């Protein structure tokens, strides 16, 4: 029987290779005192633990580029320059400061007051809206005068003819939503007649409903 090498090669997986090239896992003693028998490894078998990791030299040299400094330069000077160079943390801090300044500037722009609306413009806008409602109410009043039946919400609009006219007059506008000339009388006889007619129609409609 061949004698084993005094210093057999031991792999990472615990396999021994003797001087004859025979690979085996040597016998060992378990915790309970029993003996674990020697196991021979089949030729050609290599456990994953013993597989060599492939290394690409070009890739490794590319990863380590720039770490060795400038060829021919003083290592001490290179180290000083490296220490003075801004780190990622410094760059992130500067970026955060710039972002904060940008947001503060945007907030100032947004807080600027909007230009105030001129009172006359606001009056004219309100008068146009009132004149539109007044025209609709008068149209409904005319339909009622012709014998057409009105819905409850339409009757409510007719009732507001006098109120709409007073609101327009208070703003200084006529029933058409146009600004009155100075000296123009409040409400024409035609408008007053329509208002009276509208009020009578509404009163008559309510009496018929009861």
TrEMBL record:
Comp. bias (Basic residues): 125-135
Biased segments, Acidic residues type: 109-119
Where do the TM regions start and end?
A: none
Ranges of compositional bias, category Basic and acidic residues: 41-63, 77-94, 136-145, 176-193, 201-210
Q: Name a Pfam family for this protein.
A: Mago-bind
Q: List residues of the WIBG Mago-binding domain.
A: 21-47
Return the annotated region ranges for Disordered: 41-145, 172-210
What Gene Ontology cellular-component terms does the record carry?
A: cytoplasm; exon-exon junction complex
BP GO annotations: exon-exon junction complex disassembly
SMART domains from the xrefs? Answer: Mago-bind (SM01273)
List GO molecular-function terms, semicolon-separated: RNA binding
PANTHER family, per the entry? PARTNER OF Y14 AND MAGO, PYM PROTEIN
Q: This chain belongs to which protein, by name?
A: WIBG Mago-binding domain-containing protein
User: Which organism does this record belong to?
Assistant: Aulographum hederae CBS 113979
């Amino acid at each position: 029987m061949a004698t084993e090498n005094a210093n057999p090669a031991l792999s990472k997986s615990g396999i021994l290779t003797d001087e004859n090239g025979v690979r085996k896992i040597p016998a060992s003693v378990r915790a309970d005192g029993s003996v674990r028998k020697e196991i021979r490894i089949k030729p050609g078998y290599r456990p994953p633990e013993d597989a060599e990791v492939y290394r690409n030299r070009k890739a490794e040299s590319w990863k380590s580029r720039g770490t060795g400094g400038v060829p021919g330069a003083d290592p001490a000077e290179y180290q000083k320059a490296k220490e003075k160079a801004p780190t990622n943390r410094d760059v992130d801090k500067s970026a955060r400061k710039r972002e904060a300044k940008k947001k503060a500037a945007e907030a100032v722009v947004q807080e600027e007051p909007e230009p105030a609306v001129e009172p006359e413009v606001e009056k004219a806008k309100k008068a146009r809206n009132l004149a539109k409602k007044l025209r609709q109410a008068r149209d409904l009043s005319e339909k009622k005068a012709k014998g057409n039946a009105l819905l409850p919400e339409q009757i409510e609009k007719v009732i507001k003819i006098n109120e709409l006219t007073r609101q327009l007059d208070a703003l200084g506008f006529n029933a058409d939503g146009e600004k009155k000339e100075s000296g123009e009388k409040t409400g024409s006889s035609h408008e007053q007649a329509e208002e009276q007619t509208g009020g009578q129609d509404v009163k008559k409609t309510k009496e018929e409903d009861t």
